[in-house]
Specification:
The complex is a heterotrimer of chains A (484), B (490) and C (118). Chain B is mainly α. Helix content of chain B is 77%, strand content 2%. Chain B is built from 20 helices and 2 strands. Chain C has one domain: Helix Hairpins. The chains are: A mainly alpha (484), B mainly alpha (490), C mainly alpha (118).
């Protein structure tokens, strides 16, 4: 019951938002209440799940053997927990952001947002590939109006790239992968240990894995990463929650699920399924970092940073060793908290000063100390320094590479951390220590509205807390990786 | 109730002349509505009977086959008859307002009369078990559809109808030649009877020739690539209601005849020994790709959808080409689902035409905001056409790709998926025009279509979702039907 | 020789069929197209009727002392087909009249020039 409630509640919220479209206060109240309930629900479900309760249900079975079914397992729980908690924070942020910007069509915005969360929950809880695919497509479609929210020609162009790549890869490759899996095994259910072993010639397994790797376009593995920078035309709350957390994490989550529950880590390890493909992820990490360095637009730089960070998770999945999988799973959570902080800060900067370019930020730190402090914390967590949560996931990813004796991959991770420092750290440093170009200190710019500040403080604090107390995420991640 | 199969044909046939002489006003429409609803109910009962009690064999006038005409109803034709009759019944409420606007008042009784005749013909084709009888019904439906198309508002409707008449008559005559040649060798016109006699005479060139003539004749009616040239014009210029009805039924019935001839009349061994299979696959692939690309470049929305229909027919042809149980199941399922999605789409376009009188891309800018329900219907039907999971279209694509994978037909797999992407492009173009383009001056006064147009449209839209989630009826029946056809390959 | 003379009915049919089809395709005048279509249909009628003949058979009317009859079924069939053919021709002619009214011409290329259809 709880499970279905988590899915339906955001949808009910969306309806409520549409009904309350005349009075923005009620509409925002509906958003906040729904988001709080969801946050409470995911925490409650997590604690019950850890206590051993089993959540599983089948909704309907459109075709024999292919059902719309849900089942909670560790990985999905972790993803749902991250998305559920961050939705609440983002809602607070979004209300502050949208109001201060006087954006049009806010009702459509909040309603589509709620539908996107419902789709994300559907992805997290799906018990088979078919259900996952259904919600995966729903998420693409529900986020499309958010990406094109501004309605400008630029937004439409971004929206076209977004829809084109995500739908194209999912229909052309992902669906094909699912169908091949179905025709080989007669099943699309997620099972511990995978379902493909014994049904597929190991030589072909790599090809099938490639279909999934590129087909799950939301994971933004190069060369199908273009949609993510294109989606940055969306309002910042959308970039923050959806394109740093929900949508992109849905992509890598799908890949992890497929790795663990369709292929099975033993099958991958014993047959070297991902041997060559792993370099696709490795090169995405490096190339995206290099591109990020060249971007002056703050959100574009963050977008390429996301592309690079996502491939950490993909890399961890393809390592398929226990530590690699733990690192990948934890990185879903750790990167989410850090990157959302960065996007929140970017939005706050835009709201307060209407600046979008990195080169314009000189000296802004004195005018907006809280914002840049949060940005600084987020940066350090992404780089993977203690005492911030990001350290743990990088630690396990490195361990995974070492465990499988892939020293060159370890080197990639190290180089990438250096690149992170080069393209992210200068931003807060410029803000705090450089003088504005005019030579005058900013006086007319103050901090962004309170809801925005509150959201940033919460997420940046979370980055610190997660260093000292990563336990819930670690437990879920090791449960998923251990396969027991 | 023994006469159920005959009643399905006779009721609309008898009412057609009655409707023609009824006084003007809404009475002709009301009578037609009652008749089509009755037919839909009868067709439903017939399918139920077939599924539960087995094949119905009805001897017309008490003459035993193979001398008399036999109506032989199995799962295949009961299914197709249900599609035809229920689409007719759903179209009729929609017809009232649309027809009053598009057809001159004095011609309305004749319009409904022709519609009933067309229904008679289509249902007749599905019911009969006699290949010459098929020709007669084929011509009844064709002649009335030429007349219906020519009633379109623009003068191009006349030339389109004429073009269709020439093509259609050549097709029907080809079919007739084929039937004659087969008759000359077997001495029978009963489908089952021919099937038992044919193995003895398959070595004869005449049988080969007859088969080829029949296939080409039906391929024209089916608008199978590259014999599809009549279809885009006919669909574009016909009155909205006629387009809805024909798009959802006429080609489907032709496809049914194709299936029946391929798998029942000609024992599969013969049909498969000739390279028909490869021809079907090539034709299917070509129409999916070429017609979809044509659709992308259309400026008239109805024409865009018409080219999309040609492409969708390609999917069905491809399914038949696999000649496997899954392939034929996929073709039948897609036949049903495509009727749902194209019905809904053409109804939505008809609603726009009802409001603004035309449907070119540059005239509909921004109308999605003015007509949100119509726009919603287009979006959902478009998703179904693309094959997004949760819609009926996904089920068809799933079975089609499964059938292709079974035979490791990788090119076909790629083409099916690529076709979906092309559908994203052309439907995306339509949706973009409706939603993102700034609204035109005239468009600002447009209001939502009346409920009488919306209700049937949304019935079909919801059916698109329902049959995407519950496939007991569609896939279940299609699988039984494929088994009835005795498809040989696994 | 027998191939040509013994099956002369088929040669007639094929000749008419080709004449008909060629006329439909090559003529731009809509009336001539209809004529071609009719010839094409008529050739099929001949095909059926000549097929029904049984060598030495009498007309299929039961008479004392006659054992061998021609096959009446194709005749019956073709009666139906003739009716269909007449209906088609009538409809086609009606369409041509309407086309003439709204375009002022029944030449295909001129209609095409007027609005790029057909």
């Amino acid at each position: 019951m709880l499970l279905l409630t988590t899915l339906l509640l955001p949808l009910a919220g969306a309806v409520g938002i549409l009904i309350a479209h005349r009075t923005p206060d009620y509409r925002e109240a509906v958003t906040l209440i729904t988001a709080s309930l969801i946050a409470v629900l995911v925490v409650e479900i997590t604690s019950r799940y850890m206590a051993g309760e089993v959540f599983a249900m089948t909704l309907i079975e459109p075709m024999p053997g292919i059902a719309i079914a849900f089942e909670i397992e560790a990985l999905g729980m972790l993803f749902a927990l991250v998305a559920g908690l961050l939705w609440l924070v983002t809602s607070i942020y979004a209300i502050g952001y949208m109001r201060s910007q006087n954006e049009p069509n806010q009702t459509r915005f909040f309603a589509a947002f709620a539908v996107s969360i419902a789709a994300t929950m559907g992805i997290a809880f799906s018990a088979n590939l078919f259900t996952l695919f259904l919600f995966y497509e729903l998420l693409t479609l529900a986020t499309y109006p958010l990406v094109t929210h501004a309605g400008t020609p630029e937004a439409k162009r971004g929206g076209r790239v977004y829809l084109g790549i995500l739908l194209g890869t999912s229909i052309g490759l992902f669906l094909l992968g699912i169908l091949i899996t179905w025709s080989l095994t007669g099943s699309v259910d997620f099972q511990h240990g995978g379902i493909l072993a014994g049904h597929i010639d190991p030589a072909w397994a790599g090809l099938l894995y490639a279909l999934f790797l590129f087909g799950v376009g939301k994971a933004a593995v190069m060369p199908f990463h273009r949609w993510l920078p294109a989606a940055m035309v969306a309002p910042t709350p959308v970039s923050a929650l959806l394109h740093a957390v929900a949508v992109v994490k849905a992509g890598v989550f799908t890949l992890l699920k497929i790795t663990i529950y369709i292929f099975g880590s033993d099958f991958i390890l014993s047959n070297d399924v991902t041997g060559g493909l792993i370099w696709v992820a490795a090169s995405t990490i490096l190339i995206a970092s290099l591109i990020a360095m060249t971007k002056d637009n703050l959100k574009a730089r963050l977008a390429y940073s996301t592309v690079s960070q996502l491939s950490y998770i993909v890399l961890g999945a393809m390592l398929a060793s226990k530590a690699g999988l733990i690192g990948a799973s934890m990185h879903i959570a750790m990167h989410a908290f850090a990157k959302i902080t960065l996007f929140f800060a970017a939005g706050a900067i835009y709201v307060a000063s209407h600046k979008k370019l990195v080169s314009e930020l000189n000296g802004l730190g004195r005018a907006m100390p809280i914002t840049f402090a949060a940005f600084f914390i987020g940066t350090l967590s992404i780089i993977g320094l203690p005492p911030f949560g990001g350290m743990w996931s990088k630690w396990y990813l490195g361990l995974g590479a070492a465990e499988t004796a892939q020293m060159s991959l370890l080197a990639v991770l190290m180089i990438s951390s250096l690149l992170n420092i080069i393209y992210l750290l200068p931003i807060p440093i410029r803000a705090f220590f450089s003088k504005p170009e005019s030579g005058q200190h900013y006086t007319e710019i103050a901090e962004a509205p309170k809801p925005i500040l509150l959201a940033m403080i919460v997420t940046s604090t979370a980055c610190v807390i997660l260093f000292f107390y990563p336990d819930p995420f670690y437990q879920l991640a090791s449960l998923a990786a251990g396969g027991s | 109730m023994d006469h159920i199969s005959l009643l399905l044909v006779v009721i609309p046939l008898i009412t057609a002349p009655i409707v023609a002489v009824l006084p003007r006003g809404r009475l002709p429409w009301a009578v037609t509505l009652v008749v089509t609803t009755l037919c839909a109910l009868l067709a439903g009962m017939q399918l139920w009977t077939v599924l539960h009690e087995g094949v119905i064999s009805y001897e017309l006038g008490g003459w035993a086959p193979p001398w008399g005409i036999e109506y032989r109803i199995d799962a295949v034709n009961a299914f197709v008859a249900l599609i035809v009759a229920s689409i007719a019944a759903i179209t009729l409420p929609y017809a009232l307002l649309s027809v009053e606007q598009e057809i001159p008042e004095e011609k309305i009784p004749l319009f409904y009369s022709a519609l009933l005749l067309c229904l008679t013909g289509l249902l007749g084709i599905t019911q009969t078990g006699d290949i010459f009888n098929v020709f007669v019904f084929l011509e009844i439906s064709s002649l009335s559809s030429y007349a219906l198309i020519s009633l379109g508002k623009e003068r191009q409707a006349l030339t389109s109808a004429f073009q269709y008449l020439i093509m259609g008559t050549i097709g029907a005559t080809f079919y007739l030649i084929g039937v004659g040649l087969i008759y000359s060798q077997t001495g029978s016109l009963n489908m089952q009877d021919i099937a038992t006699i044919l193995p003895g005479v398959v070595h004869l060139k005449t049988v080969d020739t007859g088969f080829a003539f029949i296939m080409i004749g039906i391929a024209i009616k089916l608008a199978m690539f590259p014999l599809h040239l009549w279809l885009p014009n006919a669909y574009t210029y016909a009155p909205s209601v006629v387009t809805v009805f024909l798009a959802a039924t006429a080609t489907k019935v032709a496809l049914y005849v194709m299936l029946r001839i391929l798998f029942i009349v000609f024992p599969h061994g013969f049909a498969l020994a000739t390279p028909v299979e490869e021809l079907f696959i090539v034709a299917g692939i070509a129409s999916i790709i070429i017609a979809s690309i044509y659709a992308i470049y259309q400026e008239d929305v109805k024409r865009l959808l018409a080219y999309s229909s040609v492409a969708q027919i390609g999917y069905m042809v491809l399914g038949i080409g696999f000649a496997s149980a899954t392939g034929v199941t996929a073709a039948l399922v897609h036949m049903f689902n495509h009727a749902l999605m194209k019905g809904a789409l053409f109804m939505a376009v008809g609603a726009i035409i009802y409001r603004i009188g035309a449907c070119r891309m540059d005239q509909i800018h921004g109308l999605g905001r003015a007509m949100p329900w119509t726009f919603g219907a287009i979006v959902i039907a478009a998703l179904s056409l693309i094959g997004v999971p949760g819609t009926a279209g996904f089920i068809s694509k799933w079975y089609l790709v499964s059938a292709a994978l079974e035979q490791s037909a990788w090119i076909s797999v790629a083409v099916i998926l690529f076709g979906s992407l092309l559908a994203v492009v052309y439907m995306g173009k339509l949706i973009e025009a409706l939603y993102f383009k700034p609204i035109t001056e005239t468009g600002k006064e447009v209001t939502e279509a009346p409920l009488l147009l919306l209700a049937p449209m949304w019935t079909l839209v919801l059916a698109n979702i329902y049959f995407g989630l519950d496939t007991n009826l569609t896939v279940g029946v299609a699988e039984t039907a494929a088994a009835t056809l005795g498809v040989m390959k696994p | 020789m027998d191939f040509f003379i013994g099956q002369y009915n088929y040669w007639v049919v094929i000749f008419l069929m080709m004449v008909g089809l060629y006329t439909v395709i090559s003529r731009g005048n809509l009336i001539k197209k209809i004529i071609g279509l009719s010839i094409f249909q008529v050739s099929v009628f001949f095909l059926y009727i000549s097929m029904g003949t049984v060598e030495g058979g009498a007309a299929p009317i039961i008479t004392e002392g006659v054992k061998l009859y021609s096959n009446p079924l194709p005749h019956v069939l073709i009666l139906t087909a003739i009716v269909v053919g007449v209906a088609t021709t009538a409809l086609a002619l009606a369409l041509v009249i309407r086309i003439k009214e709204s375009y002022g011409t029944i030449e295909e290329d001129e209609i095409h020039k007027l609005d790029h259809s057909l």
